[in-house]
């Protein structure tokens, strides 16, 4: 036992050394990243806060009505008024903005990686263990380097969230593209697609349900991370929950938690609704059809049956 | 003989990392199974050589795993041939650069797939225009051409539906229209009708034959179904374990099978039993479509123009109405002027599924060709005395 203790491998020290090294030598790069991320998250937050609460509520309710249905629209309206009633509007919008900004960055980074993985088995073999590693690390762990490199506040909060939330979109983009039916890919090639056309016209559209499932998961992970990220000053509803815990104020903690749940349900249902393209007649399709003045499909199908049987 | 469109010369496809090794084993006479056991590599196609003529329907037939799909995919290089030469109009496609290959696929060849392989997110017309879109044809032109090919397969009315709103048969019509839109000189069809139920399947075979009669494309058609091969093939190549064991006309394949494997396709069947009336019915007779309002004169005109003695009268859904001769038409013209009164009384149509032996007597004793109909009274073709004699002659 003594010898084993004496043999201690100083991984912690090494990591510290690496972090120091990066801090000293890559300061301009870190600043640039911080500026870019800061710009994205602040733009989202400022825009959302700039819109009058009632108008934003109306927009969200309309979006729910269009994508999900009238029942969910009523739920959205009630929930958003509850949030206003709890005086948590600003925190909620701040959280939404952080989630949307972090997801946005995660997706921008995640899609190309996912596509590259789908195109090359080597890339997949390299990236897959990294993704596994990223997903099995407890989320708190991301806070430490983020805070070390970028200090406290929204920027490190967003960055930690980006890293934590990215894996599903990478994975599901890769999976979605690989799952596209072999014959569809062959059809694309047989009609003379270039690699790029194959991706844009066949693989991505057919992988869309899977990609959207990845987007949905990324957003959900971002939301769960946002609460944790409030520990390094990311603010928003997470802060409310954290304050509630620190002061043992059950009421405040519950209100913050309720806000998070409402945001979660809304983001979940709305993003999920974009994954159903190609499965049955969506409202959008019906709208397009009506606009073009073509009859519904059912009638024509019935006619064909009468003819062939 | 027609012009040669496609030449396949000693083509091999070996799936695996060291094809030369497998090739040497093939040279030593090892079988596909032995090679797989020794090296783990699969011989997809070995030593395939054949020619396809312009405008012919060339069927490749064989059991599952015999290499049919591999063969057809090498023709547009969806699968890279391991060795050998494939020439289209005299150009070796194996040597083509990627860019040239893409141009070839856009201009010369189109493919129809077993599972249709339509794009579910696009409407029927966008699917039909897919090849043109990829080739960069502007929207107006490509819609125009797509609509024309949809019209050719009878789906114009569904142009703005989505594929999941169509039945299987309709989906494959879209697949066919997509191929036609590019106006290819070669169509590759890999078990294109195998996923359809039997009734729709024959309907689609007729559709293909009809399209062929309108504009003669070179069709390479894969199937594992003997009936289908006999129906639509001008010539048939039979594949076994990656080798082509016989190439010939349907009659040759049936009457002079090269080996046990080929004859096993029709085991236990005597040749006259193999053929049904539908098999030897040919659409060589003149047909006249009877539309409400059209009169005798159009039929008389058509017959005079083509210098034929008899014509088959169909309604616009291809249903059989009757057979007329030049003299019966002339008589009716002087009579009540109705085409119905010109129908020849002693001509009785038969159905396509009747055995050849059952209709022998009738054909032999009739002064006219005997019309053959399907179960829905649709016209399949007619059997003339000459066609019958030829078939019997080959059979014996
Ligand atoms: N990508 C591949 N890798 C390895 N072996 C393959 C590959 N594709 C086909 N094969 C093998 O090549 C042989 C021929 O297959 P192919 O798909 O051409 O047969 P087929 O005649 O089309 O059969 P089916 O009627 O089942 O479609 C089979 O033994 C198959 O296992
Ligand atoms: Mg096959």
TrEMBL record, chain A:
GO terms for biological process: choline transport; glycine betaine transport. It comes from the Bacteria. Residues 92-271 form the ABC transmembrane type-1 domain. Keywords: Cell membrane, Membrane, Transmembrane, Transmembrane helix, Transport. It is a multi-pass membrane protein. GO terms for molecular function: amine transmembrane transporter activity; carnitine transmembrane transporter activity. One of its GO terms (cellular component) is ATP-binding cassette (ABC) transporter complex. It is found in: Cell membrane. The chain crosses the membrane at residues 21-41, 47-65, 72-90, 96-118, 139-166, 219-238, 250-267. Belongs to the binding-protein-dependent transport system permease family. PANTHER family: GLYCINE BETAINE/PROLINE BETAINE TRANSPORT SYSTEM PERMEASE PROTEIN PROW, GLYCINE BETAINE_PROLINE BETAINE TRANSPORT SYSTEM PERMEASE PROTEIN PROW. This is Proline/glycine betaine ABC transporter permease. The lineage of its organism: Bacteria, Pseudomonadati, Pseudomonadota, Alphaproteobacteria, Rhodospirillales.
UniProtKB/TrEMBL annotation, chain B:
The complex is probably composed of two ATP-binding proteins (TmoW), two transmembrane proteins (TmoV) and a solute-binding protein (TmoX). This is Quaternary amine transport ATP-binding protein. It catalyses: a quaternary ammonium(out) + ATP + H2O = a quaternary ammonium(in) + ADP + phosphate + H(+). Signal peptide: none annotated. Its EC number is 7.6.2.9. SUPFAM superfamilies: CBS-domain pair, P-loop containing nucleoside triphosphate hydrolases. It is a peripheral membrane protein. The keyword ATP-binding applies. Keywords: Amino-acid transport, ATP-binding, Cell inner membrane, Cell membrane, Membrane, Nucleotide-binding, Transport. Residues 30-266 form the ABC transporter domain. One of its GO terms (biological process) is amino acid transport. Its main location: membrane.
């Amino acid at each position: 036992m003594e010898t084993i203790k004496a043999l201690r491998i100083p991984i912690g020290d090494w990591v510290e050394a690496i972090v120091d090294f990066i801090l000293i030598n890559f300061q301009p790069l870190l600043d640039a990243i911080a500026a870019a991320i800061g710009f994205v998250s602040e733009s989202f937050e400022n825009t959302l806060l700039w819109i009058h609460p009632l108008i934003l509520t109306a927009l969200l309710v309309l979006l729910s009505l269009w994508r999900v249905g009238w029942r969910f629209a009523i739920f959205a309206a009630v929930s958003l008024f509850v949030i206003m009633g709890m005086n948590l509007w600003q925190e909620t919008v701040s959280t939404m903005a952080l989630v949307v900004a972090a997801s946005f960055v995660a997706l921008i980074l995640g899609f190309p990686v996912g596509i590259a993985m789908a195109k090359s088995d080597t890339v997949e073999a390299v990236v897959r263990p990294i993704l596994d590693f990223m997903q099995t690390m407890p989320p708190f762990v991301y806070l430490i380097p983020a805070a070390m490199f970028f200090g406290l506040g929204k920027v490190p909060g967003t960055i930690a969230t980006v890293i934590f939330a990215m894996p599903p979109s990478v994975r599901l983009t890769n999976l979605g593209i690989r799952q596209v039916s072999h014959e569809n890919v062959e059809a694309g090639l047989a009609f003379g697609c270039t690699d790029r056309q194959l991706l844009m016209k066949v693989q991505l559209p057919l992988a869309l349900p899977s990609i959207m499932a990845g987007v949905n998961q990324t957003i959900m992970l971002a939301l769960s991370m946002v609460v944790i990220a409030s520990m390094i000053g990311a603010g928003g509803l997470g802060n409310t929950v954290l304050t509630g815990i620190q002061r043992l104020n059950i009421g405040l903690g519950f209100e913050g938690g309720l806000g998070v749940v409402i945001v979660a349900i809304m983001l979940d249902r709305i993003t999920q609704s974009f994954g159903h393209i190609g499965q049955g007649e969506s409202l959008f399709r019906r709208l397009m059809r009506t606009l073009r003045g073509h009859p519904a499909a059912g009638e024509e199908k019935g006619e064909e049956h009468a003819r062939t049987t | 003989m027609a012009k040669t469109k496609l030449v396949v010369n000693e083509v091999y496809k070996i799936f695996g990392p060291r094809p030369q090794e497998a090739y040497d084993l093939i040279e030593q006479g090892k079988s596909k199974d032995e090679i797989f056991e020794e090296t783990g590599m699969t011989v997809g196609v070995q030593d395939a050589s054949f020619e396809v003529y312009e405008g012919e329907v060339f069927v490749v037939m064989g059991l599952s795993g015999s290499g049919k799909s591999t063969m057809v995919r090498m023709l547009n290089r969806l699968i890279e041939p391991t060795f050998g030469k494939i020439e289209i109009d005299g150009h070796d496609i194996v040597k083509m650069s990627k860019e040239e290959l893409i141009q070839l696929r856009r201009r010369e060849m189109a493919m129809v797939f077993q599972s249709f392989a339509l794009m579910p997110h696009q409407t029927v017309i966008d699917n039909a225009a897919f090849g043109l879109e990829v080739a960069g044809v502007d929207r107006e032109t490509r819609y125009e051409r797509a609509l024309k090919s949809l019209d050719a397969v009878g789906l114009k009315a569904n142009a703005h539906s989505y594929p999941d709103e169509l039945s299987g048969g309709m989906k494959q019509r879209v697949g066919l229209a997509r191929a036609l839109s590019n106006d290819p000189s070669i169509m590759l069809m890999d078990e294109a009708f195998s996923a359809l139920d039997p009734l729709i399947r024959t309907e689609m075979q007729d559709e293909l034959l009809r399209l062929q009669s309108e504009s003669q494309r070179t069709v390479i058609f894969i199937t594992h179904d003997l009936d289908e091969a006999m129906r639509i093939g001008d010539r048939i190549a039979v594949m076994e374990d990656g080798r082509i064991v016989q190439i010939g006309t349907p009659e040759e394949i049936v009457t002079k099978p090269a080996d046990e494997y080929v004859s096993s396709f029709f085991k236990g069947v005597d040749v006259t039993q193999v053929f049904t009336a539908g098999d030897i019915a040919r659409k060589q007779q003149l047909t006249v479509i009877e539309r409400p309002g059209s009169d005798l004169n159009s039929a008389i005109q058509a017959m005079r123009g083509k210098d034929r003695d008899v014509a088959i009268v169909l309604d616009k859904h291809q249903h059989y109405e009757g057979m007329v001769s030049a003299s019966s038409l002339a008589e009716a013209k002087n009579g009540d002027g109705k085409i119905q009164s010109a129908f020849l009384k002693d001509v009785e149509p038969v159905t396509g599924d009747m055995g050849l032996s059952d209709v022998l007597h009738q054909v032999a004793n009739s002064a006219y060709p005997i019309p053959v109909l399907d179960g829905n009274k649709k016209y399949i073709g007619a059997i003339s005395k000459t066609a019958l004699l030829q078939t019997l002659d080959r059979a014996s």
